Structures are given as C-alpha cells and as structure tokens.
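JOB MANIFEST
job_type = single_chain_structure
chain_count = 1
residues = 222
[input]
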Amino acid sequence: MADQEKNAFAVSKPGFDSINETIETTLGDIQVRGPLEPSSLNTLKLSEGLNFFRPARRQHLALVELAGQDDGLVFVASIAHKIVSYVSFQKPDYPWWQDRCLPEVIELGGLETDLSWRKMGITTTLLDYIFNNPKFTYFEDFIVIAVQFVQSWDLNNTGLAPWAYREFMLKLFGKYGFTTWETIDPEVREHPCNLLLARIGEKIDRSCITAFSYSCLGTQLP
C-alpha cells in the first residue's frame, strides 16, 4: 500500500521549473523557480544566512537530495545565482503522520528566508507563486499540512514572544488558505503554541476531508 501511494505521488509530481518567473527589483532580478531538479539546484548557491536548521552547506545538500526524491519538491527565490529563500515539500515524516498519512496529504516541511532579505516581501512572493497562481494549481489536488513547533521558530532574530510568533504564522499561512486543525498528535500537544495547519485543495472531496479530520484525531472512520 505504501509503495502504491508513493508511486501515485511520483506520477503526479509536477514538471521541473513549472514555475519560472523573473521579478525586477531595485536590488536586482529575483528569479522564482520550482520545483527544481537536483542538477539545477546544484548550480545555485545557498545564502550563508539560510542556516536556521543546519549550516547552509549541509542544508543545500539536504535540499538537493530532497529534490531528487519521488516525493520531494523544492521551490526557491534566487538573485545572482544565490538562493535567498526556499520552500520544500515532501510526504510527512513525523511519526504521527507516517502512520496515518493519506495519499492526498503532503507536508510543507521547510520555509526559510535569509535574515538580511526579510521584510522585502520575498517569502510572500514565493508563496504567492506556489499557492495563488492560476498557472500552477498542483496543490489543489492535495491537503497540504504545515506542522508548526515553537522550537522551529526564529524567536531570537525576530524578537517575538512565542504567542506573538504564533499569530504571525497564522496570519502568514492564512493568506494561502491554511487553517488550524485539532489534533492529538503528541508532538503538537507538547506546547500550547504548537500548531497543525492545513490547506485543503479545491479538488479535494468531502470524503477525503472527513478522513483527514479523523486522522488528526487518531480515530477510524465509522
């Protein structure tokens, strides 16, 4: 069953560079691309400021590896061949969701923008092209989850307290149709600020939404 689900995802994976746009700014041309194939990702350099999860060089290698997987998708915003922001997707790898994952569920696993490039609208530009793009509707066939943990938030550089950062994330993801979902996932319930966010694609039917809701609560469909 797991192999069938993975193969189904692989068949529907969008073509490389389904998004390929150049935006003129006073700081230079910003290119928004994705999903990138590993060879294209290798020609770009990850900004040294993209080091929240691990050092930039190791994070670059991790993204290249993810881009080559059947269920991996990497989208980037770059300037002068330097990646300053990225968003990555894969089938959920949290223990809770590995055991309960529906074929239609995909996880937004990584979202990071170089500190020196923040407050320039690059993050929202990248997300706009991914989720609010009439020419790219891939994710309308999926339930996209974004599991938010306090320990994954950049509280130090933003100066925000956990509850304020939580509101910031709700506002950011809310622009793209993400809403909060109740869950008994033990990792999410470890801290009151943790969140399970999900975006229901327009092509997802009611039965799938119901199954997802039951999965969130760890129960079986009647």
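[summary]
Residues 1-8 have pLDDT under 50 and may be disordered.
The chain has eight helices and nine strands.
exit_status = 0
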